[in-house]
From TrEMBL, chain A:
<dbReference type="InterPro" id="IPR043129">
    <property type="entry name" value="ATPase_NBD"/>
</dbReference>
<feature type="binding site">
    <location>
        <position position="183"/>
    </location>
    <ligand>
        <name>substrate</name>
    </ligand>
</feature>
<keyword id="KW-0012">Acyltransferase</keyword>
<feature type="binding site">
    <location>
        <position position="276"/>
    </location>
    <ligand>
        <name>substrate</name>
    </ligand>
</feature>
<dbReference type="InterPro" id="IPR022450">
    <property type="entry name" value="TsaD"/>
</dbReference>
<feature type="binding site">
    <location>
        <position position="115"/>
    </location>
    <ligand>
        <name>Fe cation</name>
    </ligand>
</feature>
<keyword id="KW-0963">Cytoplasm</keyword>
<dbReference type="InterPro" id="IPR017860">
    <property type="entry name" value="Peptidase_M22_CS"/>
</dbReference>
<keyword id="KW-0479">Metal-binding</keyword>
Automatic annotation (TrEMBL), chain B:
<dbReference type="GO" id="GO:0002949">
    <property type="term" value="P:tRNA threonylcarbamoyladenosine modification"/>
</dbReference>
<keyword id="KW-0808">Transferase</keyword>
<protein>
    <submittedName>
        <fullName>tRNA (Adenosine(37)-N6)-threonylcarbamoyltransferase complex dimerization subunit type 1 TsaB</fullName>
    </submittedName>
</protein>
<dbReference type="GO" id="GO:0016740">
    <property type="term" value="F:transferase activity"/>
</dbReference>
<dbReference type="InterPro" id="IPR022496">
    <property type="entry name" value="T6A_TsaB"/>
</dbReference>
<dbReference type="InterPro" id="IPR000905">
    <property type="entry name" value="Gcp-like_dom"/>
</dbReference>
<dbReference type="Pfam" id="PF00814">
    <property type="entry name" value="TsaD"/>
</dbReference>
<feature type="domain" description="Gcp-like">
    <location>
        <begin position="23"/>
        <end position="150"/>
    </location>
</feature>
<dbReference type="GO" id="GO:0005829">
    <property type="term" value="C:cytosol"/>
</dbReference>
Length: 340, 240
């Protein structure tokens, strides 16, 4: 029997400090997440300097909780892994410095993990991945279609040209008087309302796999502002449903276009917006409607947002390939798959 | 006692390993390299040169700020994680006090960190029986207010430390006879940091150890300025 691998993993790319202990890339022994949402809600969005300060406050507490909950000590670990990008540079640096320090202090190999790869490999805790598979990454910072041809082999097929989908939710949420992060509330309102405003579905006619949400966002904001000027009351649930209707059309259109070009057995959805109930239903309905023999995989809600467990899942693949980093590792705030 | 000391609170990076007052290894870098890249390799090199492993160290000393926010966070994060993960003692020393250690012990020492727009992080220190006593605590101030506070001292006694060219100009206008050590000639020295750390109590709760920023973030400042108040029942960060 092969020996188990335990990886202590760190994630601090935005407003969550997370430390996890992952066994063999498949089993979560602990996954501590300290979220700063309540802090940034004071300002209506994530403030990078505030986020960096909170990470320093939380980091040792998270490490010790993660080890305690996993009931392991440093001597049981095989490696230390950390998100090194993309993300906010000041935030990334705290996780990186902490991970490098633990690796140095205990003479453990260090693994640098792409945050986006982590989101994709959240699925590793849900199902047995079959290559190649398609991944739709939807979050506050990213909207991407990625074909994964082998463990750790990523090919970006489409990317957002402007706003990320989660960012668009937060921006229209602000217009509706919903504080950041607005996604969950908009999703709930959309479930009640009707798609009556017929907002534009950007780029669905175009023959590529890229996304755009800024036109939709502007159309939404203009509609609300115009109504305000003429003192007309718009139904907020219908506004939310109309916005989400357009978002789901765009995401679904591009995803199934990609799947037509690259037929696969699994569609993995990851990132904060993968918690969206409307999106979960829509993709399932589309697969049924098209009679596709394809498994649709969403992470459990706890693993949709940023977390270190997913970093440990990806790190295991790199561990198996002896893909290790040095103590001079730095943050790469605009890292993407093509750069590696 | 074996001490590992380091400071990244400003442009220079300094690392030292000191045993019972004897400097075993000492690295200083003024090159504009990124501290996040170099600090751990430099700590590793310093320990190797001292023929020690990190486990042999008894105490970790770090300059805790004020200074560059990101810079201070880098050293403080390494120090707190290292102390926590290896159960070592940790001492944080004011980055300004560390600069004061570059001055003449007979003088009234005014270490500075240029905070732009004729503002600075500043403290006022006096050396008494080989200990630095803070006369005016470290704070963020306009140079004008700082000069007002210093008027009660004999100008010849004043020594400004770590003045950038702009701060030097302002000081010379106000106190032409004061001594000034420019930022080029006032590099923080981790060997002195180790020495200072020996005079101080170790941190009691490592989890709570954070940089001394001396300033709120702009966002928080603006939020309080609007009349907002913290709700004592709300924790801004929560485990979920």
């Amino acid at each position: 029997m092969e020996k188990d691998t335990l990886i202590l993993s760190f994630e601090s790319s935005c407003d969550e400090t997370s430390v996890a202990v992952i066994k063999n890339g498949k089993e979560i022994l602990s996954n501590i997440i300290a979220t700063q949402i309540k802090s940034h809600q004071r300002f209506g969005g994530v403030v990078p300097e505030v986020a960096s300060r909170h990470h320093v406050e939380e980091v040792t507490k998270c490490i010790n909780l993660a080890l305690d909950e996993a009931k392991v000590g440093y001597e049981d670990l095989n490696a230390v892994a950390v998100t090194y990008g993309p993300g906010l540079v000041g935030s990334l640096l705290i996780g990186i410095m902490a991970a490098k320090t633990v690796a140095f202090a205990h003479d453990l190999p260090l693994i640098k993990v792409n945050h986006l790869a982590g989101h994709i490999y959240s699925a590793n805790f849900v199902t047995e991945l079959q290559y190649p598979f398609m991944a739709l990454l939807v979050s506050g910072g990213h909207t991407e279609l990625v074909l994964v041809t082998a463990p750790g082999e990523f090919h970006t097929l489409g990317d957002t040209r402007d706003d990320a989908v989660g960012e668009a939710y937060d921006k229209i949420g602000r217009v509706l008087g919903i504080n950041y992060p607005a996604g969950k509330k908009v999703d709930q309102m959309a479930a009640i309302g009707k798609d009556t405003f017929d907002f534009p579905r950007a780029m669905v006619q175009e023959d590529n796999l890229d996304f755009s949400f800024s036109g939709l966002k502007s159309a939404f904001i203009n509609t609300v502002h115009h109504a305000d000027q003429i003192h007309e009351e718009l139904n907020k649930d219908d506004l939310a449903a109309s916005f989400q209707g357009a978002v789901l059309d765009i995401l679904s259109n591009k995803t199934f276009r990609a799947l037509k070009e690259h037929p696969v057995k699994q569609l993995i959805v990851g990132g904060g917006v993968s918690a969206n109930q409307g999106l979960r239903k829509r993709l399932a309905d589309e697969i049924a409607k098209r009679h596709l023999d394809m498994e649709l995989v969403f992470p459990p809600l706890r693993l949709c947002g940023d977390n270190a467990a997913m970093i440990g899942a990806m790190a295991q693949i790199q561990y198996d390939k002896n893909d290790f980093a040095d103590l001079d590792l730095n943050a790469d705030p605009s890292l993407d798959f093509d750069m590696e | 006692m074996k001490i590992l000391a380091f400071d990244t609170s400003n442009k220079p990076l300094t690392v030292a390993v000191v045993e019972d007052g004897k400097v075993l290894a000492h690295y200083e870098s003024t090159e504009k390299k990124t501290h996040s890249i170099t600090i751990l390799p430099d700590i590793k090199k310093a320990l190797e040169k001292a023929n020690l492993t990190v486990n042999d160290i008894d105490l970790i000393a770090v300059a805790k700020g004020p200074g560059s926010y990101t810079g201070v966070r880098i050293a403080v994060t390494v120090a707190k994680v290292l102390a926590d993960t290896l159960s070592k003692k940790l001492v944080g020393v004011s980055s300004l006090e560390l600069l004061a250690a570059n001055g003449d012990k007979a003088h009234i020492l005014v270490p500075l960190m240029d905070a732009r727009n004729d503002n600075a992080f500043a403290g006022v220190y006096q050396n008494s029986r080989d200990k630095f006593v803070s006369i005016i605590g470290d704070h963020h101030t306009s140079m004008e207010k700082l000069f007002d506070a210093l008027k009660e001292y004999n100008e010849d006694q004043l020594e400004f430390i770590n003045a950038t060219p702009r701060l030097q100009e302002l000081i010379q206008n106000q106190f032409p006879n004061a001594k000034i050590i420019t930022s080029d000639n006032s590099l923080p020295d981790a060997a002195k940091l180790a020495q200072l750390a020996e005079t101080k109590k170790p941190v009691t709760d490592i989890d709570d150890f954070v940089p001394t920023y001396l300033r709120l973030t702009q966002a928080e400042h603006d939020w309080y300025a609007k009349g907002n108040k913290d709700d004592g029942n709300v924790s801004y960060v929560e485990e979920v």
